[in-house]
């Protein structure tokens, strides 16, 4: 077939059909507009095939097994270790074997068009797509173009690394085999979760963190995860930088680590090396330079968006609505699926409202068009065992933002936690705005605390006065009773 150039017009063009792009398109169509999604790989994006879903599928069996092993009576019934092949098979099920048919079907049902290929902006409201079918598509947007292109791994400048075929999180989450020895560089969320997943699947894991583990959490919380990883046999090397990585003749890798040993250096040999040292917005090759956006100081390009996701820095056009938006990882504010989808809902609704003349200028905070929670209440859970869960401001962040802050902390020791498992260890913290006596943030660490988080998110978003929160009685005997203990310790 001779390749063709096809011209199409839509109300809204969304580049990137990850969870975030899908949600923008859905809201736009629900708002009465037409939308096309442009996707270069799989509809569903990183989260469905290489990130949240497969990583949680790899973690959950180990957490379930450890849960049973931690309860006398059940522990006696557990006589074997994880069946790695069965875990990988279940992971394959959750990623639909890296086929996106069901997501495509969903798009069809939702009335969203799909063009498969790599897209980039050629001029305002115009996107060209090098179609995977060999055709070129020239797409025009009557109202908006949305960048929902996700993020790409940031590769650290470690000697030797650039030349080697090491694992990123994609290779780790989609692996068909469990390596005998795995070295993980990066002590953030992905590194901690995947180190534990592979340790429990049978790998001999070394996790190298240049400072503390999970450094964005309070130290009392993250140290419980360090203990959990070490209990699973992970060699957690804190305050250790990776000087070089080399491939050996037998295909294994040797890392030279700079640490506090008398020699100042040690080496670790592994069959696979996972690099999980953060991500940055995927904004390259999108034609943004033609609009005047340039990367600064050798750093990856970053955009600034307003509360509706509108990209800042483009000239106003007389009589025209603004047209360029960025959401989810591409917007570079939060790298979480749930928060990206929240942004997508607000952005999709704002685009539809602007198109219908129902919204002009900036929307009111907390209206359906504004991503106000981004400033106050971003929840996140680290799915290690024990888990970490946090929402809102930390004490340090609240102080920096000028709040009159106090905090209250406790080990989680309630009837619910004793019943949950033998030797339950947990920690909880509330961050309080003393002027308004409302919560600014909360952190929980411990087995299964992820499910405690939404109560805290509601309290922060609702700005529930502590005196009223006191009347939210946690059921007995749940781990949630830690809320009562925290409020009592606070003085209520
Ligand atoms: C290992 C790992 C585990 C994670 N676990 C969690 C978790 O448990 N919970 C959580 O909330 N978050 C988690 N995250 C973060 C989460 O995966 C991301 O925040 C989320 O995927 C972002 O969604 P998105 O739609 O913005 O981007 P993506 O899912 O990356 O989708 C972007 C899409 O755009 C496409 N694209 C990019 N450029 C173009 C182009 N020029 N033309 C056409 N298509 C293009 C890509 O192919 C991709 O499909 C995890 C991340 C990692 C790495
Ligand atoms: N459960 C979840 O919600 C979940 C799970 C995994 C990933 N994610 C998201 O995916 C994103 C990427 O995850 P991630 O763990 O790669 O990022 P991250 O930002 O959580 O952690 C990156 C880690 O790498 C370290 N690092 C950076 N440069 C380094 C260098 N040169 N040498 C050694 N260490 C270095 C940082 O200090 C940090 O500890 C995160 O922002 C997170 O939001 C979320």
UniProtKB/TrEMBL annotation:
Ranges where the Pyridine nucleotide-disulphide oxidoreductase dimerisation domain occurs: 378-483
Keywords on record: FAD, Flavoprotein, NAD
Segments forming a coiled coil: none
Cofactor: FAD
Residue ranges occupied by any FAD/NAD(P)-binding domain in the UniProt entry: 10-337
Keyword Flavoprotein belongs to the record: yes
InterPro entries per the UniProt record, alphabetical: Class-I_Pyr_Nuc-Dis_Oxidored, FAD/NAD-bd_sf, FAD/NAD-binding_dom, FAD/NAD-linked_Rdtase_dimer_sf, Pyr_nuc-diS_OxRdtase, Pyr_nucl-diS_OxRdtase_dimer
PANTHER family: DIHYDROLIPOYL DEHYDROGENASE, MITOCHONDRIAL, DISULFIDE OXIDOREDUCTASE
Similarity comment text for this entry: Belongs to the class-I pyridine nucleotide-disulfide oxidoreductase family.
Protein name from the UniProt record: NAD(P)/FAD-dependent oxidoreductase
Gene source species: Pseudarthrobacter humi
